[in-house]
Amino acid sequence: MQAGTVLDGRYRLIEPVGAGGFGQVWRAHDPRVDRLVAVKVLTSDGSTDHDRQVARFAREAAVAGGLSHPHIVTVHDFGSAVRHGRPYAYLVMQLLPGKSLSAVLEAGQLPLPTALYAASCVADALDAAHEAGLTHRDIKPSNIMVRDDGEATVVDFGITKGSNDARHDITTTGVLIGTPAYMAPEALSGSFDHRSDLYSLGCVLFEAVTGRRPFTGTSWQLINQHLKEPPALLRTLRPDAPVELERLVSRLLAKNPAQRPDSADEVYDLLEEINDSYFGDTRPISAPPSSRGADITSEVHLHPDEATAGAVIPLRLTARETCLACAPRGDETRVLACTACKGEGRIVRDQRTLKVRIPAGVKDGQKVRLRELGAPGQHGGAPGDLYVTVHVTS
């Protein structure tokens, strides 16, 4: 592939922005909606591994495409075609600003507030994936994109494992699925659950805070260390780290999954507590005060089959505000006659349609929490959450 190539008659490649064992990632232009996108391209090299890699691409499109979350990369499209007699597959994604965390860490350890914020973003993303019954299985710095303000986005759901869907399992007998430097002890024998992702997050957080991985060496040395050796205590390498952060990292890196935090949501809350206790608001004093956005509530109606298996549904949200043409005057007659709001006293300020994933096994009347999909925050404050009440109807 080269700059100027048009894939499948649509996506024009502009410049490469990354590479890996799969092929290349390109900055590209999609003329149909006039937007810049990231296109991951897998070109066949004639090896027998190509079909498995294409299956991984297809799975990444299906899995990430079904998750709507501010800290999970948005997947737009997936396809395959033939160019100059060679087959290729491509995955079209949101073009994320910033750099991979692995590139950022080349300069050394992160400031503690930055490390905490990036890790909380990853924990938030994992909470959404785990709620959907998915284990990422490859959380590592190169799969985390970081903006200049420290906000992080999780990418590469190609080896994700679904708890109830065999189609998500591409484990090859005798082959490690994941990256040894960040793999949980139980994952080394092919056993995964959501706590395996938390161990990997612990490895990433350790590296972000100290500038080095908890374990190093060859693949076999890493396996032995993950299985048998404790990592160094965080504060021996970063004395200014809060003791609570050292305790959290030690829990995340516990050999026994039962000794780790129960959920990514718990990890998120602990990271927020540590940050608030030790670092608080790090914005300049002259900046206006930030405020978190309001939580929003909504409702959805699902068929029993969708409630059992899970579903990705469009959810339209409408934000309204007081009609300044009539409501402030307190005159009910004037409100009823108002043409701007058609007698309602409020007008539509904003409308948006979200693609939200309702996890499998949801019950009638259950309320599902979707982090940071509520009203936007002010002056850099975090968005509120969206609470969706599920109604199961035949």
UniProtKB/TrEMBL annotation:
Protein name (record): non-specific serine/threonine protein kinase
UniProt-listed PANTHER family: MITOGEN-ACTIVATED PROTEIN KINASE KINASE KINASE 20-RELATED (PTHR43289), SERINE_THREONINE-PROTEIN KINASE NEKL-3 (PTHR43289:SF6)
Organism superkingdom: Bacteria
Binding site for ATP: 40
Keywords carried by this UniProt record: ATP-binding, Kinase, Nucleotide-binding, Plasmid, Serine/threonine-protein kinase, Transferase
InterPro entries: DnaJ_C, HSP40/DnaJ_pept-bd, Kinase-like_dom_sf, Prot_kinase_dom, Protein_kinase_ATP_BS, Ser/Thr_kinase_AS
EC number of this enzyme: 2.7.11.1
Molecular function (Gene Ontology), one example: protein serine/threonine kinase activity
Keyword Ribosomal protein: no
The UniProt record lists the keyword Ligase: no
Species classification: Bacteria, Bacillati, Actinomycetota, Actinomycetes, Kitasatosporales
Stored Pfam families: DnaJ_C (PF01556), Pkinase (PF00069)
Domain Protein kinase: 11-279
